[in-house]
Amino acid sequence: MKPALTVLRSRIRVGSSETLSAQTCQCPRCDRKLCLMWPEYVLHIPLHRVIWLDCPGCTIMPCPVLLCVADNAARAAWLFEHLTKEYEFLRNPNDEDRKKWHTIQIDTGVFDANKGIEATLREIVSTVGKTGMAGERVRCVVSVQMLTEGWDVKSVSHILGIRAFGSPLLTEQIIGRGLRRTNYDVLNQPLDERPEGYEETVDAFGIPFVGFPVQKRNRPRTGSWGNKPVWIEPDAKKAKFQVRVPNVRSWAVSVTKPLSQVIHVSKLATTLADPVAEVTVRPVVGGNPEAVMTLGEFRREWPLLRTSFLLAEELFGATNPGSVAELGIGPTFDELLDVSREYIHTRVTYPTNGDQRDIGIYNRRLQARDLLENAIRGASGSGTAPVPILAKPEWLDSRLIKRFQWTGILAEGKKAPTTKVPCHTDLEKKFADFLDGAKDVVRYLKNERFGFSVTYYEHNRPRQFYPDFIVVVRTDDGKETMWLAETKGEMRTNVPLKNGSAELWCEKMSTTKHGQWRYLFAQQLKLEKALSKGTSTFTKLASDLIASG
Q: Can you tell me the mean pLDDT for 291-306?
C-alpha cells in the first residue's frame, strides 16, 4: 500500500497500514527524495505508525518533539539509554557536543547551573524547536519532574508519561506542554471559515485523561476549546473591591538598640577553622573559587584584622541592602566590625595543626557570617525589626492592571475588582467561587497580571513565587487581615520552599505598619474535602486546612 504523505510544519508524515522497515518518498513541498526509517513500535507502544523526518529542503519549522515524563532519575536514566540505543531516529551521534544530540535528559540540576554540561543542557532545553539555536536538533526530551509549567516549546507532538498521576491538575499541565499554539487568531474565526488542519492536537500515552474532552466528564464543564477571548480589566462599578499591596523589593534590619545589646556573641555557636593544604579564594567577578596561594602564603596575607573588616563589610551589605544605608536604620559598620572581631577572637576554634587566621578561608568565613547574620535578623522584639524596602511604584494597585484578553476558565468575581476572574485551572475557579460566597471575605484579587511576588531561594538562587490570590478577610473584632492564598494540585519539590518564604514574608510584614498578613496553602484534595463540609467562612476554611497540615 502506498503511504499517504501529508506536509505539516514542513515535515513529512507517512501513514500506512503496512509494516515497513524503510521507504523512499518525495517531499511534496520541495520535490526532494527522502529515505524514511519506519520502526513499527516505540517503547512497544504504537505511535499511530507515524514517523517524522526533517526535510533538508524545508526549514520552515523544527522537527516535532517527543516529551517523556518520569518521576525519578533512575527511571529516566533507563529510558534515556533505551531510546538512544534501540531507536535510530532518537540515537545521539558519537560526539561529546550535546548541541548535536537528538535526545536529552534533564532534571532540576540543569536549571541551577552556570557552567558545564548542565548549563549546556539548559541552553538546549530553553531553545528546543528554534531554528539556528542550540536546541534545533532535539527530537526527544526525557524529563524528571520538570517542564510541567512555563516551558513554551511549540513543537511537542507526542507525550509519554512514565509515572503516577495523582492530580488532575498535573495531567492538565503535562498535556499543556503539547498544546502551545504559535498563533491564536484562528480561534476568533467562525468554524466554517477556519483552514484545514487548524486543530491543536497532541498524541499522549500513559497519562490518565480524566477531565479532558476525550471522555465524558464527571464534573461541571468550566472551560472548553474555542472559547471567545474575553477582555479583563478593572471594573469601575467594583471600585469598593480595590486591592493595594506594598511593592516590597527587599528587607532590611532596623536596629533600635546598640548591636552589642541586641546579640550576645558569647552565646553563639562556634566555628571550626580547619586548615587546608591549598587555599582557594573566590575571584573578583563570578565563577567558581580559584586556587591562588598556599596555606602559609594565605596566613601571611590574611591577618585577623583583614578578615574582620571583610566579615563586617559582608554583614553590612546583607543587613543594609541597596540604598537602605542612607536611611540610617540598620546596624552601622563600626558596630558590625566590633561584633565580628569579638566573634573571631572568642568563638573561633581550630585544631592543633591549625591557626586562628584560617577563619579567613572563604568557606569558614561564610559559616561565621551566616551565624552572625541569622543572630541579627533573629533578634526581633529585642532591639531589631524587619523593614520592607519598597520599589517603584511603592504600591501595587488593582486599578492599574492593564486590560488583557483571556481565553481560559473564568469565575464571576463578585468580590473582585476586575470584570471577571481569570483562572488557569478548575481548582482556582472553585476557590474563587468560594471567596465570592464566604461571609467574612471583604474583597479579593486573582494575582494575574498584577505583579505581586515573594522571593524564595532554591539551591542558593533567588526565585519568584506568585501566590494565586490576595484575600482581605474581616475578623470577629472588625479588623481586616490580608491573606496570601495558593491553590495547588501537585506537590513539587520546591513547594515547601515557596510556602516557607510566603509565611516568613507575612510574619515580617505583620510587624510593620501595613497591618496583619497571613498565608494559606490549599492543597487540592484537602481543599475539596473542606469545601464538601459546607464551610461558609474563609476563617473556618483556613483553620481546617492549617489543622490538617
A: 83
Contact 359, 282 (CB under 8 A): no
For residue 205, which amino acid is it? F
Separation of alpha carbons 251 and 387, rounded Å: 6
Do 65 and 129 touch, CB atoms closer than 8 A? yes
CB-based burial label for 417 (10 Å; 0-12, 13-18, 19+)? buried
Query: What gap in Å lies between CA 132 and CA 139, rounded to an integer?
Result: 15
Residue 468 has what DSSP assignment?
Answer: S
Question: 285 or 522: whose pLDDT is higher?
Answer: 522
Exposure on the CB side of residue 98, measured as CA atoms within 13 A: 19
Q: Does the pTM exceed 0.90?
A: no
Give me the phi and psi of 445, to 5 degrees please. Answer: -140, 130
CATH classification of 62-219, choosing from 2.30.30, 1.20.1070, 2.60.420, 3.40.50?
3.40.50
| Grid cell digits, residue 504 | 516568613
In contact, 150 and 115? CB cutoff 8 Å: no
Q: Is the peptide bond before 393 cis (omega within 30 degrees of 0)?
A: yes
What average pLDDT does this structure show over 19-27?
47
Q: Which three cell numbers stand for residue 425?
A: 485551572
244 touches 451 (CB < 8 A)? no
How many Å apart are CA 200 and CA 216, to the nearest integer?
A: 20
Mean pLDDT lowest among 75-89, 193-207, 388-402: 193-207
> How far is 105 from 69, CA to CA, in rounded Å?
10
Provide the grid cell at 221.
464543564
Distance CA 47, CA 39 (A): 10
Give the pLDDT mean for 445-463.
84
Task: Give Cβ neighbours of residue 374 (< 8 Å, ≥ 6 apart).
Answer: none
- CA–CA gap between residue 136 and residue 133 (Å, rounded): 6
**Positive/negative CA dihedral, 79, 83, 85, 90:** negative
Cα–Cα distance for residue pair 244/143, rounded to 1 Å = 39
* H or E stretch covering 540: helix 538-547
Q: Where are the beta strands (DSSP E) in 285-427?
A: 290-294, 348-349, 384-397, 404-406, 409-411, 421-423
Q: What is the 3-state secondary structure (H, E, C) of 173-226?
A: HHHHCCCCCCCCHHHHCCHHHCCCCCCCCCEEECCCCCCCCCCCCCCCCCCCCC
Q: How many CA atoms lie within 13 A of 478 on its CB side?
A: 0
Which residue has cell 495523582? 166
- Distance between the two ends of the chain, CA-based, in angstroms? 61
Q: 37 in helix, strand or coil?
A: strand
Burial class (CB in 10 A: 0-12, 13-18, 19+), 137: buried
pLDDT for residue 90: 86
Cell matching residue 54: 526533517
Domain boundaries, the chain: 1-58, 62-219, 230-248+392-547, 257-382
